[in-house]
Amino acid sequence: MEKVWEFYKGGAWVEYFLIVSTVLFIVVAFILYLMIVRSRNSNIRKEKLTIEYTILIEKILFALIFEDTSLAALKENQDFSRLIEDGFFREVLTESVISLHKNYEGIYARKLEQFYKESGLIQDSFKKLRNPNWEIKCKGITEVAEMNITRVFSSILTVSKAQNKTLKITALNACIKLGGVKGITHLTEHPYPIDDWTQVNIISAFKKHDIGDTEGVEFLLESQNTTVVALGLKLIRELKLTQKLPYVAELAARTHNTIIQYEAQNVLKTLNA
Amino acid sequence: MDFFNNEIALFSHVYLILILGYAILLMSSYLILAHLSVRELREYLKKNSFVDYNVLLTSEFAPGLSLIAPAYNESFTIEENVKSLLSLNYNNYEVIVVNDGSKDNSMEILIKTYDLVQTERHIHPQIETKKIKSLYVSRNAAYRKLIVVDKENGGKADALNVGLNIAQNPYVVCIDVDCILDKDSLLKLAKPFLESHGKRIIATGGVVRIANQCIIKNGRLVEVNIPDLMLPRIQVLEYLRAFLLGRMAWGRLDGLLLISGAFGAFDKEIALLAGGYNTKTVGEDMELVVRMRRYMLENKMPYSVHYIPDPLCWTEAPEDFKIFRKQRSRWMRGTIETLSFHKRMFLNPKYKVLGMLSVPYWALFEFLAPGIEFAGIAITIVFIILGLLNWHFFLLLVLFVYFFAVMFSVIALYSEERTYHKYPKQTDFFKLLLAAFIEPLYFHPLSVYAALVGYKEKIRGTKGWGDMTRKGFTKKE
């Protein structure tokens, strides 16, 4: 202890501390500078590759959609058959297929879905779905939902019960796209409050995917969870489901929750007008 | 004589150790906050990449917002700025422009451009303000969101209070009329209000960035540039540090004291219950946040304040020292006034993180730092005169502080690079890097001086903002 005190009193530690710290600051700043340079170079490289890949991908997808070229024929393209093994190329290809799929319906959309399955891109999405990392899982969910892969519905439904809110919303959106009302009826048993943001997303998913069959929305009104009941009421109002009004009237009559009662009466008033 | 020399030597030793201790404490707090900020930022960006803000754009459940834009002598820019406010991506909002007794022709421009006519609206003012002369709405349906209030001059806080009294929506967004807002800024600002988990979200704030030399087209930012002039350029770096490495952490700790007056949203009911903006301070933005939080804590109401790291608002930084000094001295006065109004929160466990951490931090590192630094310089000069300065130690200390400042700026540049990447041009990056090396030698002393002027003004009882002349943005034809 005495030695420590003597060392402190001697003041030599101050000099030592200042020199070491200053050198450390310089080294850290320099390393960060190198990391910035590396990050910038990597971004530039990726941008260049994306531009290069996009030209090829556009050609391939054009041939696939408008010229009825088969995947086997596409694989005769040397560049494509070489690059399809490359992870980054597959990533850019998946993004292009997904974004194109958003803009097409009917036969063109089905051709893209077929390509997505046959080219093995679907396997990449499945891998993402199995990834424990929530953001990768989200990406996988978005991809399979966009490409209408209905066989993963039940596993996405399980994910939609997750605690992570972003993952939950993404999964619920996907469930609604793939299964309509079936994708949200499990919410009747939901133990926690569903916040307004999640509710707005659910309503938007119904509108966006133009869910025609709304059989079962009324079950939400029977939930013990008032936020789920509120969601049911909002859905009925937003989608103008006049056929559900008897359920709303029944809710307004039986509920003891004044807010829900008020909201139910509002829905009745709006839809009866 | 020996006794005297010994005393001086002891004083010198204690002084240097104290200065070193303070520097280490300050640096450690910066690094801890930076670490927390970076973690929070990464988490936010991950989540945000899956957020579709369009769901709010098309939803009738989007929270109603009232934008309050106080204007004083803004005739050069008011037409375009109001137009840009009216064309934001959001459905459920109104724009309240409060002409705070401008001496120029702002009102005439507004009336002519927006085809305004006087209207009668019964207002129940909950906060006392200066007299409202007239209220205007547009005859043109395209501007139906616009309300213009012509009032007697009473300062920014008074104008904002008029807006609070008039606002018809549950949330108010207080902005500087000369700021350039991102098209989606309202969508991002409104989202947290829908995400409360048993806690009431009382305020949300967004990042403000410097727009000097950036190119603006139709009230929108179309090209980001780094200013050539060193003063605004260093402020770009300063804002990056403050917003990316500081406020995000305070948001995470739930101890955020300041939402920039340039762009922030508030729960109107709580803002009114807390008493609205305080007209007796020039730091009305910070003071309102502190008072609203204090109100919630004193009334035991669970609440939260959200902070959005996206660059949503772009503002013009002072380019000459005179304006810069006025701005910074005013900021210091605002800090002193806010801390003084709420001094009972200091180290008071009743106020939780706010009382035990945020307020002491602001007192120690924002309010006292320039004074301590000035005292340090003064004592160093005395030591030099008396021949007592240990030059070796002094030089080491200067290098220690200098390289920490450089490193911290590089951390901010790295965070920016890995997150928003708003400065992709190589020349811009090197300009900022150069600024990091120059800042401690040029900008920092100016900031300390301006803060000391703020002390002096506070002691002398100076009130008001002083003239804040702006150059205006570069416009694309």
TrEMBL record, chain A:
<protein>
    <recommendedName>
        <fullName>HEAT repeat domain-containing protein</fullName>
    </recommendedName>
</protein>
<keyword id="KW-0472">Membrane</keyword>
<feature type="transmembrane region" description="Helical">
    <location>
        <begin position="16"/>
        <end position="36"/>
    </location>
</feature>
<keyword id="KW-1133">Transmembrane helix</keyword>
<keyword id="KW-0812">Transmembrane</keyword>
UniProtKB/TrEMBL annotation, chain B:
<feature type="transmembrane region" description="Helical">
    <location>
        <begin position="392"/>
        <end position="415"/>
    </location>
</feature>
<keyword id="KW-0812">Transmembrane</keyword>
<feature type="transmembrane region" description="Helical">
    <location>
        <begin position="12"/>
        <end position="38"/>
    </location>
</feature>
<keyword id="KW-0328">Glycosyltransferase</keyword>
<keyword id="KW-1133">Transmembrane helix</keyword>
<feature type="transmembrane region" description="Helical">
    <location>
        <begin position="353"/>
        <end position="386"/>
    </location>
</feature>
<dbReference type="Pfam" id="PF00535">
    <property type="entry name" value="Glycos_transf_2"/>
</dbReference>
<keyword id="KW-0808">Transferase</keyword>
<keyword id="KW-0472">Membrane</keyword>
<protein>
    <submittedName>
        <fullName>Glycosyltransferase family 2 protein</fullName>
    </submittedName>
</protein>
<dbReference type="InterPro" id="IPR001173">
    <property type="entry name" value="Glyco_trans_2-like"/>
</dbReference>
<dbReference type="GO" id="GO:0016757">
    <property type="term" value="F:glycosyltransferase activity"/>
</dbReference>
<feature type="domain" description="Glycosyltransferase 2-like">
    <location>
        <begin position="66"/>
        <end position="195"/>
    </location>
</feature>
<comment type="similarity">
    <text>Belongs to the glycosyltransferase 2 family.</text>
</comment>
<dbReference type="InterPro" id="IPR029044">
    <property type="entry name" value="Nucleotide-diphossugar_trans"/>
</dbReference>
